[in-house]
């Protein structure tokens, strides 16, 4: 573990290198984020990162980070919980995005334990953090295993009933090029959530059949691919860990993503087209749509999600 930089608040940020099998990973304590992930025999990183902390406090604020406690958008930045209305920060037009400007992505996490192939980080969130009730603690365990697998286990508790929906927000480009065009993307989802002009779910759950959102057969992405900033509905609730997404670069590098969660948000990064943000999570804006899988965490209960990335070439 070594010093990576100092935040504008004067906090020290560390870099944590991990290695196992064919993978090497560098984590940052700022946002518990994936800064760099490399596969043996490939001369470029598989995620978009930076060596400058200022980038992560600026335009790359979500790159590789764990966003939460509520990832994605909350329409009109208002939620009702146990009869109380909570007004949240409007940091994306009229919406609340990724728990506001000071969410978990913008915090320096504590290092609990490290080994050559794993690291466990935690973050304590006081009552009122991100506008929501409960004193909360979240723990992120990153583990590498041979031949080339990264597993992220997120666990959280709260002493008060609250909302919980964390996500890793890495941007992927398996070719190390300036564009995701030429990648093939397959998602095991029969439905998706249509969005309005503010990129918030309309409340409809639409069949992908006959639409540009039908990625069940792994089409190659190009400039004619419809803009992507949508949740793909994997299930109606949490499931045992299962493979749900397959991404292949033009150079033959392959990624298989598995998760226990019911949704997969895919954002194509337009207009830059440089990488794909692929975020396993619950469906966005769930508190405002009672027919969506819900993200309410009762006091004293334990939240857990597992996401796994496996690579080959």
UniProtKB/TrEMBL annotation:
Record's keyword annotation contains Isomerase: yes
Keywords, sorted A to Z: Carbohydrate metabolism, Isomerase
Gene Ontology molecular function terms on file: aldose 1-epimerase activity; carbohydrate binding
Protein name: Putative aldose 1-epimerase protein
Protein origin, superkingdom: Bacteria
PANTHER family tied to this protein: ALDOSE 1-EPIMERASE, ALDOSE-1-EPIMERASE
Gene Ontology BP terms: galactose catabolic process via UDP-galactose, Leloir pathway; glucose metabolic process
InterPro entries for the chain: Aldose_1/G6P_1-epimerase, Gal_mutarotase_sf_dom, Galactose_mutarotase-like, GH-type_carb-bd
Family according to the record: Belongs to the aldose epimerase family.
């Amino acid at each position: 573990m070594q010093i990576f930089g100092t935040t504008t608040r004067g906090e020290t940020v560390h870099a944590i290198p991990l290695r196992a099998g064919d993978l090497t990973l560098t984590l940052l304590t700022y946002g518990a984020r994936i800064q760099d992930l490399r596969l043996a025999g490939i001369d470029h990183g598989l995620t978009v990162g930076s060596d400058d902390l200022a980038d992560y406090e600026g335009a790359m604020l979500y790159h590789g980070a764990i966003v939460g406690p509520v990832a994605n958008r909350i329409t009109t930045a208002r939620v009702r919980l146990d009869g109380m209305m909570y007004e949240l920060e409007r940091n994306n037009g009229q919406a609340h995005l990724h728990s506001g400007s000071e969410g978990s992505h913008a915090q320096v996490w504590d290092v609990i334990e490290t080994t050559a192939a794993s690291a466990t980080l935690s973050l304590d969130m006081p009552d009122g953090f991100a506008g929501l009730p409960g004193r909360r603690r979240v723990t992120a365990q990153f583990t590498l295993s041979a031949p080339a697998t990264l597993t992220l286990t997120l666990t959280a508790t709260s002493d008060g009933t609250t909302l919980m929906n964390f996500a890793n927000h890495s941007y992927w480009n398996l070719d190390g090029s300036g564009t995701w065009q030429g990648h093939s993307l397959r998602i095991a989802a029969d439905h998706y959530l249509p969005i309005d002009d503010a990129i918030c779910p309309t409340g409809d759950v639409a069949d992908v059949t006959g639409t540009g959102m039908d990625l069940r057969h792994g089409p190659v992405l190009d400039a004619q691919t419809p803009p992507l900033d949508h949740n793909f509905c994997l299930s109606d609730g949490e499931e045992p860990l299962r493979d749900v997404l397959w991404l292949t670069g033009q150079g033959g590098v392959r990624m298989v993503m598995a998760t226990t969660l019911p949704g997969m948000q895919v954002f194509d990064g337009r207009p830059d087209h440089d990488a794909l943000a692929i975020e396993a999570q619950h469906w966005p804006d769930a508190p405002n749509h009672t027919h969506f899988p819900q993200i309410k965490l009762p006091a004293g209960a334990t939240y857990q999600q597992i996401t796994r990335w496996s690579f080959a070439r």
